[in-house]
Each structure stands twice: as C-alpha cells, then as structure tokens.
Amino acid sequence: MGETIIRxxxxxxxxxxxxxxxxxxxDIDLEIQKGEIFGIIGLSGAGKSTLVRCINLxxxxxxxxxxxxxxxxxxxxxxxxxxxxxxxxxxxxxxxxLMQRTALQNICFPLELNGLRGEKNWREKRAKELxxxxxxxxxxxxxxxxxxxxxxxxxxxxxxxxxxxxxxxCDEATSALDPTTTQSILALLKKINREMGVTVVVIxxxxxxxxxxxxxxxxxxxxVIQEQGDVSEIFxxxxxxxxxxxxxxxxxxxxxxxxxxxxxxxxxxxxxxxPIIATLAAQQGICLNIISxxxxxxxxxxxxxxxxxxxxxxxxxxxxxxxxxxxPGVTAEEVTDLVQ
Length: 340
Ligand SMILES: Nc1ncnc2c1ncn2[C@@H]1O[C@H](COP(=O)(O)OP(=O)(O)OP(=O)(O)O)[C@@H](O)[C@H]1O
Ligand SMILES: [Mg+2]
Prior knowledge:
- β7 (167-171), α6 (179-196) and β8 (199-204) form a beta-alpha-beta unit.
- It is built from eleven helices and 14 strands.
- Strands 6-7-8-3-9-10 form a six-stranded mixed β-sheet, with helices on both faces. Strands 2-1-4-5 form a four-stranded antiparallel β-sheet, with helices on one face. The protein has a four-stranded antiparallel β-sheet with strand order 12-13-11-14.
- By secondary structure, it is α/β, with parallel strands linked by helices.
- The two termini are 41 Å apart.
- Bound molecules: adenosine-5'-triphosphate (ATP) and magnesium ion (MG).
- Magnesium ion (MG) is lined by residues 48-49.
C-alpha cells in the first residue's frame, strides 16, 4: 500500500430538511493513494458531484472527516481552507473557461488570483509550457469560441495544472466529448499522472473511462459506496447489484424463461482461451445456452463475463456447474437478478 493522500471517513451529506430532505451521501469511507488514478463511478444522481465537492470542501459535509495531504480540511477555518484547496484543482464536463480571455490568459488566471506567483512574464512563460504539455502550443491566442470541445478541455487541464496541484479532480471531464476525443483526453490525464505525479480522481458514469485509465474504483449508488477495489477485480467479478448494473449494463435487458437457471462466468484474465462451451458439449454432452457474453481488455489482461442458461435437467445442470467451477481462472455463480 502506498501513502494515502485523500482520506474520507464517515462522510454524510444531507440537503434540505423535512419532506424535501435528500441524503446525497451516506457514511462514505474512502482512501485514495498518492499517485494513483482513482475512479468514482455511478449513475446519474448517485452523489458523485456532491462527493467530489466534499473532497475540496466546496460543499461542507453534514458530518464526517476529509483529510487531504495530512491536513484535516473539515477542521480548517475558511482562510486556511483556501490555502489548502490550492493543492487541488478541478476540471468539469462544461470546461468552465472564461470566454473573454484567450487560452493563455485563461491558464494565467489562477496564478493571478493567488497573487503569489511572480511577474506577468513568468506567468506567461508557465502558461506556454503548459500549453506544450497539453498539446496546444499554437493556441495561446485563441479564444474559447475558436476551440473545439477537446481543445477547450486541454486548456482547462492546463489551467488546472498551473499552480502545481497535488490532486486533480475530474467531474465527468469527458462526458461532453466524442469517443475519439475522450480517448485522447484520457491519455493526456494518464500522462499527467505518470509524468507529473499528480493524483487523479475521475468521476464518471462511463465504464470505459474507468477501464481505460483508473487503477482503482469505487462504485457509488444512491449515496452509498457499494464496493471498491482494483479495477480488474471489480470489473471482472462485481459483487453487488449496483456493480453488476454498471459493469453489465445490458444484463437487465435479458429476457429468459423464469424456469431457466442462469450461471454467470467471470474470467479473471488467466484463462488459456479454452473453448469451454464446446468442450462441455463435446465431452459431456451437455449443451448450455449463451444468454450474453462480453469480454474486454484492461491493462494487458483480458477479462470477460458470460451468462449461460443451464439445462432444464437437474442432474445435467449440476454436472455443468461442477465442470464450470473447476475451470482455473473462472468464477462461476448462479444468478437470479438478471431475470426481469
Ligand atoms: N445543492 C443541492 N440541493 C439539494 N439537493 C442536491 C443539491 N446538490 C445535489 N443534490 C441532490 O443530491 C443527489 C446527488 O446529486 P449529484 O449531483 O451529486 O449526483 P451525480 O452523481 O453527480 O449525478 P450526475 O451524474 O447527473 O451529475 C441528487 O438527488 C441531487 O438532486
Ligand atoms: Mg454530477
């Protein structure tokens, strides 16, 4: 285990009172390690933005503790909090650039605001270096309206990095972008993480974002962290209903006869590529029905899940289960929650 940079303990956030009361976050415990890319994934309304705003205390938690870089933010006075917040910056879905300022001026803005970071020339030199890092060396004088969505997000990333943050919080930073642009922005975030050592927290509703860049992930559902761990573990074998809903979004749409018993196989990246279903049919004469199948590559390993319908015959179903459970690198469990 590395060094913890963000520690959240028993955090709760409630909006409103009485009938209008919303418990947006309930007893959240989370530890984010220095230097990692941590994903927080959940459906709309899960509480993701609230959580990220509680990390930098733009939103005051109703109860609980937030500690960043060894400093307990929830115990700080406003003035000290402002100072502590400088170690964290944020990017958003809507980029939030100042429209009347050029790319260069946008990047200089946080340095001007804190007033401590030298002369205009110094700031502009720094902004130009950052434009290089984000791949837009020729856009210094462009206004936001003259930039594409991807370019705007690059400028926003450069601005977020201007004051050397330790932590970059990204709230749905790629949700307004097409898939190709999303890929390139995620690659940039990864580069910044690896080369500059910035800890990145990625808030998203999209699995593929987490898959592409995150080391670990927490699944947030209705204000509660349902499970958390290494991306490969959580995605190859989600243990909770909320996890399965996100990882296998099509699972809910599967229609099968209620009489059919189902088994879910999760491949953990070590299987030899043996044709399991064909082998079972050829060697044991047992035919399984493929209900759904989905495989993906995370890092350099392949993972996948498959849902199979077991034969109606009880003995055959039992034999099939025994066979499936003995395959190395595969977890087989009966499921009931996919049936609508
Ligand atoms: N300022 C507020 N006042 C009252 N309720 C709020 C406020 N901010 C958020 N909420 C409620 O808290 C819950 C979580 O909202 P939040 O914006 O954190 O969700 P989210 O996961 O970021 O959703 P999305 O993916 O749509 O951005 C929602 O029920 C929302 O209506
Ligand atoms: Mg949100």
